[in-house]
Design goal:
homotetramer; alpha/beta; Dihydrodipicolinate Reductase, domain 2; 2 domains; six-stranded parallel beta sheet
Chain lengths: 342, 342, 342, 342
Amino acid sequence: MIRVGVIGYGYWGPNLVRNFAELPGVQVAAVSDLRPERLALVKSRYPSVHTMADHREMLADSGIDAVAIATPISTHSDLALQALQADKHVLVEKPLAARSEHAIRLIEEAERRRRVLMVDHTFVYTGAVRKIKELVSSDALGDIYYYDSVRVNLGLFQHDVDVIWDLAVHDLSIMDYVLPYRPCAVSATGMSHFPGQPENIAYLTLFFDEALIAHMHVNWLAPVKVRRTLIGGSQKMIVYDDLEPSEKIKVYDKGISRTSGAESVYQMLISYRTGDMWAPQLDSTEALRTELRHFVRCIEHGQAPLTGGEVGLRIVEILEAASRSMAERGRPIELEKCGATA
Amino acid sequence: MIRVGVIGYGYWGPNLVRNFAELPGVQVAAVSDLRPERLALVKSRYPSVHTMADHREMLADSGIDAVAIATPISTHSDLALQALQADKHVLVEKPLAARSEHAIRLIEEAERRRRVLMVDHTFVYTGAVRKIKELVSSDALGDIYYYDSVRVNLGLFQHDVDVIWDLAVHDLSIMDYVLPYRPCAVSATGMSHFPGQPENIAYLTLFFDEALIAHMHVNWLAPVKVRRTLIGGSQKMIVYDDLEPSEKIKVYDKGISRTSGAESVYQMLISYRTGDMWAPQLDSTEALRTELRHFVRCIEHGQAPLTGGEVGLRIVEILEAASRSMAERGRPIELEKCGATA
Amino acid sequence: MIRVGVIGYGYWGPNLVRNFAELPGVQVAAVSDLRPERLALVKSRYPSVHTMADHREMLADSGIDAVAIATPISTHSDLALQALQADKHVLVEKPLAARSEHAIRLIEEAERRRRVLMVDHTFVYTGAVRKIKELVSSDALGDIYYYDSVRVNLGLFQHDVDVIWDLAVHDLSIMDYVLPYRPCAVSATGMSHFPGQPENIAYLTLFFDEALIAHMHVNWLAPVKVRRTLIGGSQKMIVYDDLEPSEKIKVYDKGISRTSGAESVYQMLISYRTGDMWAPQLDSTEALRTELRHFVRCIEHGQAPLTGGEVGLRIVEILEAASRSMAERGRPIELEKCGATA
Amino acid sequence: MIRVGVIGYGYWGPNLVRNFAELPGVQVAAVSDLRPERLALVKSRYPSVHTMADHREMLADSGIDAVAIATPISTHSDLALQALQADKHVLVEKPLAARSEHAIRLIEEAERRRRVLMVDHTFVYTGAVRKIKELVSSDALGDIYYYDSVRVNLGLFQHDVDVIWDLAVHDLSIMDYVLPYRPCAVSATGMSHFPGQPENIAYLTLFFDEALIAHMHVNWLAPVKVRRTLIGGSQKMIVYDDLEPSEKIKVYDKGISRTSGAESVYQMLISYRTGDMWAPQLDSTEALRTELRHFVRCIEHGQAPLTGGEVGLRIVEILEAASRSMAERGRPIELEKCGATA
């Protein structure tokens, strides 16, 4: 039996508690939150869970094995560090930290104490993204030409982070998981329409050493909700629409053929071909359930998580570079962890 | 009776000929094309039209009042200049020229000879874009926050120009028409996936002096066709989907309200409101018909066209700056004609 | 404080319990179900609720004011009668009874004992259907020409009732609420594809004294989910798509104009006109919450519910007639409660 | 060289002329129409085509081999008979005749004179319908459970025929082509909302000897255009949406499994399974081009057309029965040509 504590019972915390509560072999032992009314809500729903305002009480409880952190981003790394130092396994809501130095500090601490450090990149655990990973890994797409995502809606404004840290973090973590390449530079543009507030609309371009380009559009101020990613390959192309109720992934047997011949402005050397479209059946298990099961398994078997500290750090580094580029109207910023993965 | 000649009977030329032929008070007198099989096609469809391989024969015909040019981009300005010098009124397919100096030369020549010089920015003449213009001009949207367009599909590769010059030119001309502001800088990124070929995917961000940002995504290699523009304002927002058969324009009574109060990471100072959606009935006249009627009227009454040389030049200048920025991975390039229009 | 008991904790019961539990002034006192595992689930979620296998225990509890019944259709009227005889107010899941005699018996009993008898026609309490009612009542549509609904998906097969009693009951209750006319005859066709099982696909046409026709398509075996109703009027037409996340109701300013003139097969005497489309903002409160609040208010103030016994009876009578017609391959069956409502 | 004449240059005639004109080995020799302005239009488009008001002039021309008839329905059989008697091969716009006796008369005449008699069931020649035929014939769908089509829009009112004869004729001809069964009875309901005019909305149910049901909804008065057919089978199901620009056919690997076990109202004996969806690439040749090529080939090789007189007659017989049933509010009418095809 793994005993879990959850810090923060705001927007995401209830999902963590609910899913942990339903996992066999897991017990939600404690929940902390600064707001009494949130703790009262926990009590009404889970009378047997211990609630507290001060998370240090939870960390001091040696009966608790693991802690999940669902608090504002600026507090992630400090709370995670405290939890690791109290010898807890830690799951941190995305992004892992607000600064890459802090993420590095967490990785070191987790390693030293041999604790699981995992970041909650939820989309990596969806049936849709896992299917994309499978398709890309099997070379079904051929050479990858581009990765283009749009994640916009009329949504909650955040006050402590810009829209890149709030929304693009999802797309970056999906891209990091499915592509076998890591970006070498980023150019970002964006704007805040409300003085003193962080940027509410942003565009990121990611450059690679390969003949591949990635782009993300994130926006808190769109009249319609769009969650669409296009992945173009030389053999096949994917449209991933997360709002589709059943056919989230469509694989198009479309591509480009180069034909040889004399070149002229009137002659096409490059033509396209179109074939069938196919929408594979997807695992519809709630992603967070799959993810928490994985977290528990990593604790039990001392495994490295799929979305561990290093992954979390890579994403934070891109977020930092993107913010820097955005402040300079798109000037490209180099990234270090560049190139094809082994 | 206005007698018209058309140079180039490839993809767009047939549309020009068909629409000119149906306009009262207009006669298609001549069509030139380098390819005999295209001229044969003209003859089979319009036996009374004079056809020729050499456009100079057309320009030498003093009975011809106006010439429309629908040839590869690299030839636009040279052909247009010849036509002006032959004292013809000239309509040039978009973009007006491949270099801004050439566009300037055309403007000067047209002015000197008091000829109409018009660029074929077709979308400006659609019912949809005219309705957007009307909504923006009437301040229905409030402050304009952003202009975001996507124009992608699996389409014809051009060999003489990149995808910005081929596709973004449409979005730039629409934006130039509907917005009362002119961009001050551009950052563009993109890529060619085929060695020796121009970029086939590109992203443009346009910066303004105002709290407004514009972005365009153009792509010849997308598995699905998308033609969607979002225009966000403080009072209302527009979704313009050109592929919708009937409801191309949707106006959302959605926006943002700033509420005052104590600031904290848990408190929302900015909230959104949602109201009705409204899809206005649009004029469904073929845009090219409206446009050519306007061209003829400008000739007859000596009027300045809605999409004259200056407009064409502005767009070419942005295209040039975008190409330059794209070559430097998004480095922002300043634009001169910046600011609010009178 | 109204104390409520719920009989049946299968598919719909949990929604009743959850919504009652969240209503101020209401307490869920007891839940009964024949299956121990369902009762265990209640206990885990609501430790303070009294659970029992035998509903008679609940009815015998004089501290319970009202009972909601969410059991198989064949048991509705018997359980409701017992509850009324125990002087409880009663809410019955749709349809009110499996036979119209039984519904009549319930109405009489409720009247005699001055108890609230309400049937759970949930859709009547949605923001969408209430908006349609408002539009129809205000004569915005002009003369109503037709009511056409499609309710199909790959869904749960019922064993005790056919697809008309399971799905068309929703459409009949919506139609009964929004239209000011009652049908005079019904013709139904359908089929069972599984020997010994009730019909899994069916089509109903409803005839009126007015120049109005209604039709419903219900199907448990469709590869895609459709929930779409068209309501055509002489002035405006409504499309109600319940699967649309935000724009469930679209009002089209489209209609028919009769023009006078000489009649010939080549001349159109009837032409159509098209105008704007408008999607009104809708109340998005969960329908069941609105409905249960109404139930409680009816109990407290002795009011007649919007969907009381008479409404439930009317629907059961149509369902009976439709089943009879379906057995005779569409032979029309007359209905008694025919004509315009006051 | 086959020389063709076309009678009627209204809505459909121009499509016939254009497609015949582009077929190699075919020459459009003559067009007749009662309206001088239509003949003028022919002349402006095809200067070499002989035009005439009186079709008898065309029939008297022994140089003309075949005649296509695109006139109002009431005139189809008389014109076709005259053409056959003048020893022409004949293509008749759908439906073949306004009465089944007339269709029989045409079949006899064509047989006696060994002329090709073909009815223009255009949809049979589309890539989409041919793909459906292929899927059904290969038993990919398993047992066919139902055929359900919706064909509605705000469209042209016809004055000489009701909406069944105008629109359902398309669906009946598609169904006749793709299903290996012929219906045994029909129940139809419908209504005219304009005194003295034919029905503008109608619903048809078709009964078969097999465990199969078909239904069609046709409507000239719908605010939105819908062209959607569902075909349900025990193994797979098809959604055919003719308005989809590219993925008109979607094949769902969905179906029903019967599981054995003790029966109770709480236990499901019938459950469904869902798998991949697949949208096959379709031949996008214009259907009319394929059809006319087939017509010409039948003439040249003395072949029987895919949509010959017998097919046309079968459809007319169903249309007659449907009209009769509609007049009696859905009373089922038996059909003779009932059962499985060889």
